[in-house]
Each structure stands twice: as structure tokens, then as C-alpha cells.
# Entry
Amino acid sequence: QVQLVESGGGVVQPGRSLRLSCAASAFTFSSFGMHWVRQAPGKGLQWVTFISYDGRNTLYADSVKGRFTISRDNSKNTLFLQMDSLTPDDAAVYYCAKDRRPYVDFWSDSLDSWGQGTLVTVSS
Amino acid sequence: DIQMTQSPSSLSASVGDRVTITCQASQDIHYYLNWYQQKPGKAPKLLIYTASNLETGVPSRFSGSGSGTDFTLTINSLQPEDLATYYCQQYHDVPLSFGGGTKVESK
# Structure
């Protein structure tokens, strides 16, 4: 069964940085694109970013473009999200999620497996 | 950006009821629409992909329909474990976007 485990969340001051990780197991990580999706407390879901299976293609929501960087290490089955210049609007639970179809250069159709999420709090 | 509008934002229903949730896209997204279920404190779970395809392991009481701008998620014979928030999501274009959610509560 696919397993995705996020880590790295915590409390950070505005303007500072945080790096999230997502450890993947029980599937061929290097074959699938991956996403980060966030959810502010009591709010809905917001797509943040995507990276292709080979890391060559990345996409970002406008709200994080230039501040967040998605990357992956296929040798370690791990996805990352580097978050810089954080603001209170970035406070949320961050989920990593697997794209449903393999070997797609951009997003395929759905996000078929999700981690349990990691909470990021931005506060002075 | 494509805006996704769900209605209602919440509803109350009894076990055994048929529940219908609608999702409207701000432009034609063909059939590029997914539905997710989220229970409190848990991650979303994929129910329906590409408008009408049931994800493996999802009970057959869930079904999806629609194309273009108007879509529907139907739960036939609501079960206690179906009390949750449901989200639609378009993948026609980036940014991928979700509806605001529909919370299904017990009457």
C-alpha cells in the first residue's frame, strides 16, 4: 500500500524559511509526478506545486511562485518543498500527494494517494 | 484561473438518503474533474476521477457525472461513514483548483 509521510513542519517566524520532506514507499517513486497541496485551518484545499517523475518539469501556484521550490531525490524516494519568505498566509497543513498515472511530463488526472500532512505555523 | 463552485456548502441527510452535490466550473473543463472525500483530521481521499470513473476500492454507492461546466457527485443510500466534506477538483489547466467543499452532516 502506498505510503507518504511528510515531515518538517513547525512554527516559523514571518520572513523565515522551512523545508518540508515527504518520504515515499510501496510504489516506484521515480515513475510518478508528485504534488504539494495545502489546507489552511478550517479552510479548503489549495494546490501548491507539482514536479514531474524525473524532476525536469515543475509548476507552481502564483501565490508561491518565486518563494517555494519543489524538488525530489529519486534515489532516496523523497520529495521536498523549500519554503522561503514565509508569510502568515502560508500557514496550513501541507500534504504531499501522488499523481495517478506514471511517466507523465505534467500532471495526469488525479491525486490518488496522500500523506497525513504536516502543519506549518507562521507567527512571530 | 478556473474557479470551481460547489453547492451546497453544507447539507444534512439521514442514513439511506440519496445525496447530490454539484460543482460548476467557470469555463469548459470537458470531463477533467475529480471528487475527493475528507474526514476531520484526515487527508483527502480520491473517490471519482475524470468525472465518472470510480477509484478502486470506493463503494459503488458513489457516482459522478457531468461534462463541460456542470458536474454532480451522487451518494446513493448514505452510510454513517460517508459523513465528511467533499471537494471537486479540475485538472484542465494549472493552477489545479478545488471547489470550496460540501460538508455532509447527519440530520
About this structure: The CA atoms of residues 49 and 60 of chain A lie 4 Å apart. The interface with chain B takes residues 35, 37, 44-47, 50, 59, 61-62, 95, 100, 107-117 of chain A (CB under 8 Å).
